[in-house]
Amino acid sequence: QLQGCGGGLVQAGGSLRLSCAVSGRTLANYFMGWFRQAPGKEREFVASIRWSPGSTYYADFLEGRFTISGDKPKNIMYLQMSSLKPEDTAVYYCAGRDFSASNYSFWGRGTQVTVSS
Prior knowledge:
117 residues, mainly beta, 7-stranded mixed sheet, 4-stranded antiparallel sheet, 0% helix
């Protein structure tokens, strides 16, 4: 139902855009988010979006470097990542949950992002 892609290898300071294609659900009807998990670390929240009323939320460590957005007609969510650092290296996952739920209930498989120094 969620297919994340767009990861790859990039040098520090570079940019990448991740995509998450949603099938079987209407993206705008859910709270959608991005998470990441680095080797040996727990999965952590990166960013989330709710289309109505158009609210976005970001992890403090991002310092404004990432932007979450979406294309409702195409049912695709994006994560634009800029000024990438080696510590951003991780598998990135897209996920979604009902507005009333506290936990994300459906997840994509993840896409690898590697930032070289």
